[in-house]
Amino acid sequence: MFVPVNTDALTGNYSGLISLDPEHDLFRAISIKDPRSPTARVRLLEIDYRSDTRFLIGVIYDQNGQTFAYPHVFISPTKRSDGSMPWQHVYVDLGTPWGTNGTYNRQFYIQAALENGATSATILMDNIRVVY
Prior knowledge:
Blueprint: E1 2-5, E2 15-20, E3 26-30, E4 44-51, E5 55-63, E6 66-75, E7 88-93, H1 95-98, E8 104-113, E9 121-131
Antiparallel strand pairs: 1-2, 2-9, 3-8, 4-7, 4-9, 5-6, 5-8
């Protein structure tokens, strides 16, 4: 489940909350198709986040009439042993999966799932943007 929250925004009034539990144990959000494809070369996905679980950044694209999902990189949790979850800033280089020759309808996705017997997980995100 993804909801805007205003209790823990890094900047501005809201951040996005991904909350997982046994009834909602998988989350996947897919960006809109890039209107600049295929000429634009995405270089970086920029995200501020804090979390108690890892999450996946990937790319979906079409090639030769088929759709492919390319799981690219896992982002590590920020939760510390004292229970605090500081904000982190990350740049994910999407140049390789985004720039594959002959691909079109490119989108990035963010995916999270309960892992290793966990019964809950929390991810907060702010300032998500694609840098060309």
